[in-house]
Design a protein that fits this description.
The protein is of the alpha+beta class and about 100 residues long. The chain has one domain. The protein contains 3 helices and 6 strands, in the order βββαββαβα. Strands 1, 2, 3, 4, 5 and 6 form a 6-stranded mixed beta sheet that branches. A hairpin with a 2-residue loop joins strand 2 and strand 3. The N and C termini lie far apart (about 35 Å). The model has no long low-confidence stretch (mean pLDDT about 90).
Length: about 100
């Protein structure tokens, strides 16, 4: 399993931002925790699951083993995590029923 970070550099609130994704939710959350990101910052309602990270955090992520991710890799990883999220949500719904 691998963690990826893009190089989008989206300007917002005076900083440049990128996206952190992985091939599994557990790996993403563990890596994000090692970077000091709060779990509540996870973007699970966005177009794809990810953490937003500043360019400074992107550089730390790369030093800690994340790989630079191009658009195709980010989308592929996001699809895997989206399916995992849907499966988890389906399991929770089944428990309630």
């Amino acid at each position: 399993m691998t963690v990826f970070v893009d190089n989008e550099r989206i300007a917002w609130r005076g900083k440049l931002w990128c996206h952190l994704v992985a091939e599994s939710l557990s790996e993403l959350h563990a890596f994000a925790g090692r970077l000091g990101l709060q779990r509540s910052w996870f973007q699970d309602k966005a177009s794809y699951p990810h953490y937003d990270v500043t360019t400074e955090v992107r550089e730390r992520a790369l030093r800690q083993g994340a790989l630079p991710g191009g658009k195709a890799q980010i989308i592929a990883s996001a699809k895997l995590m989206r399916m995992e999220l849907q499966a988890l949500q389906g399991a929770r719904m089944a428990e309630v029923a």
